[in-house]
Amino acid sequence: LEFRRVLFRSFNLFFSQVIALIYGMSGAIFIGYLFSPEEAGKFSILEKMATPLISAGLLTHTAAFPKLIQIWLSDKKKYLEVLLFCIKMYLLFVLIISIFYMLFSDNINLFVYGTTENKLLFSFFLIWILIGFAGPIVTSYYSMIHKAYKVTQINLITLFLILCLAIPLTIKFGALGWIIGLIFAHIPVLIILGRYLQLLGVLFKYFY
Q: How far, in Å, are 7, 10, 49, 133, 162 from residue 55 at the CA level?
């Protein structure tokens, strides 16, 4: 029975990651089909940049995750402090990147695309990076409390919103539309994270 429970949890997490992979890796395909191969190429470059940047920003959370698991049951106040510290470090990381881009935007655009005409695309790319912390943190939390099915539900909602928002925007604006659609599709994840942090804050206010 315990083995089946563990297997079910693992399957839920696996299925949720498959869903995330579908909308996370299909952007260039949709953009190329709905708009143009050139726009798909633009997005592919940004996508390759986004993955290491988000991963680098989340290094603090990744390193702290074993500690977060240990203190979750014993000291939720400390858990919140560590979690908020990880989020602040991520936001600081994105702020540094944004300032660097603002200072050298022309040079960066020329290096990446050979033109300075993609500043708006890069600006929304930075917003995409900014909200990139929410998904992994929510996933880690639900995995920690053995509710991986919640991650599956959230990813299904995100996929649905992408189909409703990103595809029409891509037809109109190309790579820019896809990124804008991704940003709006991840708003529910930000809301869930915000409510969770708010709930923890309320609990600590009354019980600590």
A: 27, 22, 10, 9, 22
